[in-house]
Write a structure and sequence with these properties.
The complex is a heterodimer. By secondary structure, chain A is mostly helical. Helix content of chain A is 73%, strand content 0%. Classes of the chains: A mainly alpha, B mainly alpha.
Chain lengths: 181, 238
């Protein structure tokens, strides 16, 4: 509604090899926002969340991807992706510090939706290995971007910048949600 | 020419899956301390894996085995297991075996074989030396991140090959005239088949229509034409 069609990465007609897999998370703001938020939140929480969340996300995302590949339906995938951006963005914006297991569960829960979206596209790929490797690496690099942004917290003004970034991600998430609904 | 032929082996690997497996081999090797930090270990192992890889296509390893090995490799790297030498050897041999099926084109000439072997050695050696870095926090994190990425890719490919079979993994594809040549034999576009290509080498293919291929960029057409030349014949349709 508000955003153009490129906001969602899941409208491609076909998919190819590594480059397609790599570009898939980058081609939609919904994926980008959520994955950057994961890294950002991890950086805000500090060790061990800074590496535990970016590890949890791709592994659970792969499980969701496997569901998509096997044709097991998951309700409201796009809504789940939009909600992931909202919730993770709000966590960063309000500097929420839940226990590490809870943070991991939140990230893992939403990773299933992202993975399912990838997985349903994977069967059209000409090279499943390369496509899967491409989007896992791309996802990891997006986490890294978030972590890099989160390192700004070392500076006095960094905390404000990070929380503002989290708010922006949550706002984007609301836009995605409205466009889905 | 020689170098390009040799590195043709790398492109034929379709790059990353093979590199992931090889990198996992090297990382695990380095994790299993005490080891002698000697380049000969990496090169010997790489040569060994490259040699065993010739058995993959000859004996017809199932495609899903590569993904399962990736899962195991990613797991042991992520948790830095230190298993026995025998277990490691079994894993390396299995990796070499399945790597062979990831190579859809035969490498021409002994120089090219040498270059191809170097391509195999390099990721193992890189993984090996990476794992010998001092146990700082950065390396501790990097090892787990790499392991989790290998697990994630392997999980997806595992699901894909279980669902669609070996040929569905898209290690190779045929389109245009080749697809037309295969269609009368009962293989519809989008389906996979084992094809006995030139020199009696068995390769997996996907038969694709021209329109499908138009949206699939980044695929080496020359590789396909080499894999499934005019002499090729269909041995089994899936």
């Amino acid at each position: 509604m508000v955003l153009p069609s490129f906001a969602h990465a899941h409208s491609e007609a076909g998919a190819g090899g590594f480059s397609s897999g790599f570009m898939h998370p980058l081609s939609g703001l919904d994926h980008m926002a959520a994955m950057i938020a994961v890294g950002l939140w991890g950086a805000c929480l500090g060790a061990p969340a800074v590496w535990l969340l970016p590890i949890t996300f791709p592994v659970v995302m792969a499980l969701g991807g496997a569901l998509g590949i096997m044709g097991i339906p998951l309700p409201s995938v796009e809504t789940g992706i939009a909600l992931s951006a909202i919730l993770l963005g709000l966590m960063v914006a309000f500097a929420a510090r839940p226990p590490i297991w809870l943070a991991g569960m939140i990230v893992g829960f939403f990773a299933i939706f992202h993975g399912h979206a990838h997985g349903t596209e994977l069967p059209t790929a000409s090279n499943a290995y390369a496509y899967a490797a491409g989007f896992v690496i791309s996802t990891g690099l997006l986490h890294l971007c978030g972590i890099g942004f989160g390192l700004l917290s070392r500076y006095p003004w960094g905390g404000i910048a990070i929380r503002t970034g989290g708010g922006a991600i949550a706002a984007l998430g609301f836009c995605f949600l409205f466009s889905v609904l | 020419m020689i170098v390009s032929s040799g590195f043709g082996a790398l492109s034929a690997f379709e790059g990353l899956p093979a590199l992931l497996l090889l990198g996992a081999c090297g990382l695990w090797l380095g994790c299993c301390r005490p080891v002698v930090p000697d380049f000969s270990i990496g090169s010997l192992l790489g040569g060994f894996v490259a040699g065993v890889s010739g058995l993959g296509p000859a004996l017809g390893a199932p495609g899903v085995s590569a993904a399962v090995l990736g899962l195991v490799g990613g797991g042991v790297v992520a948790i830095a297991r230190t298993d026995s030498f025998v277990l490691r050897c079994v894993y390396f041999v299995a990796c070499g075996y399945v790597l062979g099926i990831l190579v859809p084109t035969p490498v021409e000439g002994r120089h090219a074989v040498l270059c191809g072997a170097l391509v195999v050695v390099a990721p193992i050696a890189i993984g090996f030396y990476l794992s010998l870095l001092p146990d700082r926090e950065v390396w501790f994190i990097a090892r787990r991140v790499m392991g989790s990425w290998i697990i994630a890719v392997s999980l997806l490919v595992c699901a894909f090959t279980i669902k669609y079979g070996d040929a569905g993994a898209g290690r190779s594809a045929v389109w245009g005239k080749s697809a037309e040549r295969l269609a009368p034999a009962g293989i519809p576009p989008g389906k996979g088949a084992d094809v006995l290509a030139g020199r009696g080498r068995r390769v997996n293919i996907n038969v694709c229509s021209g329109n499908e291929m138009a949206s699939r960029k980044g695929f080496s057409r020359s590789t396909l034409e080499t894999s499934c030349g005019r002499e090729g014949e269909i041995s089994r349709a899936e």
